[in-house]
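Narrative summary of target 7.
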Amino acid sequence: MAVAQDKLHPKARAIVDQLASLPRLPTMTPAEARGRPEPLAAAPEAVASVTARTIPGPGGPMPIRIYRPKDALRGALVYFHGGGWVIGSLEGSDGACRALANRSRSVVISIGYRLAPETKFPGPVEDAYAAVRWTADNAADLRIDPTRIAVGGSSAGGNLAAVAALVARDRGGPKIAFQLLTVPVTELSSRAGSHREFSEGYGLTAADMEWFGRHYVRSEADANEPYASVLRADLHGLPPAFVITAECDPLRDDGEAYAEKLRSLGIRASYKRYAGMFHGFMSFLGVLPEASEAFDDAGAALRQGLA
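Modeled conformation, tokenized:
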């Protein structure tokens, strides 16, 4: 453990050690976990406009936020926040959405999908697909090109983004142009090496992942479903992807394996591993230089993917 700990950048280690002082997720109820303080980051970036509204969803009206940057291009990113399908919110992903909108010059549509355990798998998947479908159907009103729609998200949101692309393929549309996945969950029952190496002491723990999974899926059979563990799916016909991973993240190997599997099928896909970083490093924009670099890279990849 001591050798692996040295892989964390000193600034990242200081943040992880601070986070360790918070109550641990496995000791909390979902309601208690949703009340935990959000990580402190830089002041939110200005964008041209932010519009809050609701759209029809499988479980009723679904809240969204639409971020429009100055000099917006015609592309759009449908974005799903992280939080293990249990926590996280539109407000918590506000800074990330502003940064992505500005760096990609794309309209970012942030989705307030239903959370587990109140809505278990596949409910959030259906919400994610409904949001993508709504975006394509309302492209004219959104002033976007319906052929230039990307999906993206962080952690569990990255999982929902990849799965939404899979569902769209399986249901005959809409056609997704690009996937932007940051530290995504691609496998719920993973035994990859990074899960063992970084199971404790790096922010996200093995116990946390077990807690999230227990609330999200009803059974091991659910966890093995391709719409839950997208790494197990037939990925033929999926859109190009850019995957961001962190060196000291238990999810690292699964995210990279997803990009490699796409690439093995002839799909344009790549990943970038950020040395010395932990799972939630992109939440510390303005604190960690690597977070700024990751958002710059994500914005450039999205611009290219929607060009």
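The chain has one domain: 2-305.
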